[in-house]
Each structure stands twice: as C-alpha cells, then as structure tokens.
Amino acid sequence: MFSNQVEALLTIIALSIFADKRVFSSEISTFVDSAKEIQAHAASDLPVTEAKLLMWFEMNRERLSDKIRLGPVGFKHWFESVIGELRHYPDKDFIMTMLDRIAHADGEFHVSERALSVLVRSGFQNQTELA
C-alpha cells in the first residue's frame, strides 16, 4: 500500500496501540486522526488519509498483535528490521511524539508503552552510532 519507509513508520507508531496488550478505541482514533501530520512527515506517493490509515490498521492489526507476542529474541529481530527501514528517516522526534501521543490516549502511560518508547529511542541511537 505505502512505501517501505512509510510502512515502517506506521508500524512503529501503531506498536504503541498494542504495547500494553489492550487496544482502546481512543488509541486507534488518535492514530487515525493523525493522518495529516503523518502525511506532512512522510514521503509517500499515496496520500495518507484517515480512511487509508484505518484500512492500514485493520489490515495490519493481527500481524502487529502477533509480533508483540513473539518471544524477546523473535521480537528483537523483527523490530530491528523495521527500525532499519527508518535509518534515513529525517524526523525521528516526530515518531517519538506520535508514540507518546498514542500511549497517553487512553489516559494511562503503561510500563510496556514506556518500554517501547525506550526501545525505539535506543534503536534510533544505535543507527546514529553505526552511521
């Protein structure tokens, strides 16, 4: 549907919805309502609209949920491949802002959401060190 980089961007952002193993409509709404911001920060041939984000979420919901349930080694391997797609993405602060916004959408910042934030930031820092 989208380029590899946009798919990776959406995947990382959407992981925040699944991090605490509970999916709230407020988190999905925050993700979908962010279409204009994502469009402004993503180099995509396809327009990033609310309808497309909702469709993307529904098409990837099971896959993301399955990835969250992988063991530590399997998740780390998959996660590193997704983060790798974002090595040239210029605005990593935007991704962190989106993770934070979705994590707080249900009124709670769960320890798993904090851990995801640390993991993403660490992945970005490792990319910088390797460059």
Automatic annotation (TrEMBL):
Protein name (record): Tellurite resistance protein TerB
Annotated CDD domains: terB_like
SUPFAM superfamilies given in the database record: TerB-like
Organism from which the protein derives: Litorimonas cladophorae
InterPro entries: TerB-like
